[in-house]
Every structure is written in structure tokens, then in C-alpha cells.
Model the fold of this input.
Amino acid sequence: MLSQAQQTANTSNAQLSTGPRTPEGKARSSQNAVKHGLTARDLVLRADESEEFYQLQASLQDDLQPQGALEQDLFGQLVHAAWNLRRVRRLEADLSRGPHDRLAGNSCEKAFNRFARYHARFERSYFRCLRELRALQTNRALRAQLQPQPAAALPSLTSIRELTKRTRFPLPQHPTPITQHPTRSAQMEVS
Done:
């Protein structure tokens, strides 16, 4: 427990040490704990990487062509994961370029293990977003083909399974035996 004299001394010393005061100092000190930025909430871009990032983003935008807010949100998560995958690979390469005696150390092994976990996490995120984005795009395209009604009549998140249930024909209770393979006989008739 602190005595009254120690508390008074701590209070007076705290008045002298108030941390950074300028906006530049505050910005610099806010990055004190940043080591690699892979676990950051927001995307981390160094000034020299911004052109490479925007090229990646534009390339993925051209390939995937997301439409609507939900697809754009998934696209943003996909770009974030793709960028962090590149950064993990770059950080692993930088770590392995060091002196070979450093690679034998326990701290280097821990760093490689941590980067492997980050890589697996970002890869799962990337492919999950890609799968979800593709499913939304497929549902959107099928919805446009199956329903000639105005798009406002259908909910935007309608499952394609629900839409296609209406177009399925019931199978006969007693199927007729097929003596010949149906596709082969159709091919023979065409030839």
C-alpha cells in the first residue's frame, strides 16, 4: 500500500509526463505495440505497399464483379484476407533471409509457427469469403433466370434451393425399367 507521501509524489510526477502532445507524436505512439499488423482490426498498409494493394484490389474487382452491399462486404473481407496472405508470405521470407544461426533459435521457431497459424487463418477466411460470394452471385443469376417477375417481388436473400423446389417434377412411384442407357441411346439416334 502506498503512503500519502508516495501518492503525492506519483501525482506530481504524472503531471510532468503526459505523453505525446503533437498530432505527429500521438500518431507515432499509437503504433508502439504494432509488430506486424496481421491481427489488426483494420487493414495495415505501408506507404510503399499501397500501389501493390490497389492493383490487387482492382484485379479481384475485375474478376469477381461484386454487386450490392452484401457482395461488396464479402469482397472487402476477401481482399483483406488476400492482402494478409501476401504479407504473411513476405514476413516469413524476411525472417528466413536472416543469419542461419538465428533460424536455429527458439524465438524464430515460435515466429514461424505463429506465421503458419496466421497463414491458415487468412487462407480459411479467403476461401470462405470466395465460396460465399460465389454462392450469392450464383443465386442472383439463377433468380434472374428463374423468375421473370420484377426483382422487388423476391427477397434478395432467397435461397436458390427454395426457388428451385418449385420447378422440380416428382419422380414416378414405380419407375419403368430401362433396358438401354438413356444417354447412349440418345447419342446413337443423333448420329
